[in-house]
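Researcher: I'd like a structural prediction for the single chain below. Treat it as a standalone chain; there are no partners to consider.
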Amino acid sequence: MKKQVWHIVAILGLIGLIACLGFVAWNLMNDMKAKNAYEDTASRVQATPTPTSESADDSSLTVEELDAMEFTGVREGKESKLPPDIFSGKGNPINFDELTAINSDLYAWIRIQGADVDYPIAQHPTDELYYLNHDLYQDVSSAGCVFTQHYNKKDFSDPVTVIYGHNMADGVSMFASLHWYEDADFFKKNRYCYIYTADKIRVYDIISTRSYSNDNLMTTRNFKDTNVYSDFIKEMMATRDMESNLREGVEVSVSDRLIVLSTCINGWPENRYLITGKLVWEGTEAELERAEALIAEQHESDDNSLAE
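Model: Treating it as a single chain, here is the predicted structure.
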């Protein structure tokens, strides 16, 4: 009798294990499909008519159901598929006519090539959290869309602009790959973030990575107050822990403009991982090549000074 019971228990356990493995494999397959779709999009260059929506297929869920889910800093699901041929050139590679035809809330693009970050940036006119649970097509999606809130201007002229993106379970998509910056060597080698808008290109030097509370920086600090901004900079430059990295030799003052990329931390739902970039150049596509040479020349000079 005992043998029969144990036999039944073993069978049930095996069935449960197979079901769990199948669920994990299904999620990994969806994440991989989404990543491949983004990479395929980035490789195309010719104009096409505005595409139809390719949503992340969370259509069976409502925003309320997504909000009720228990997240630990990592979201399951997949990104929305970007339309083909959104890229239109080398310097400023974004076809903003195509992009805004998809969704008028899409106003900028963020690219960090080494970290596989290559996404449109949205800002909803009234709902600050809309793009937590909606994709670039405004369809309900657990992956959401990279976004800013209306506390920030769309021309990146604020002292600090905060850009949000989910930490996805595949470890790559949306802002999940920002956690690669926890590795000091990766941080050292992958230092530039590009922000594109229809009229300008902006180059940021990634100067700091650190864990932080889940406080909304834009509502808890008035960065237009130079004393508040100065304290924030001092706090950032003084952070030293296992998750943090700081670019040696870089100076930051209240006259600088920063972007802060914010994403969740696996297992730490009350904390955020912040990547901070300092604006080192902005201008038109025609000015970019010369600017890149000047930036490289300056950093070579800085490295030589540190070596002496």
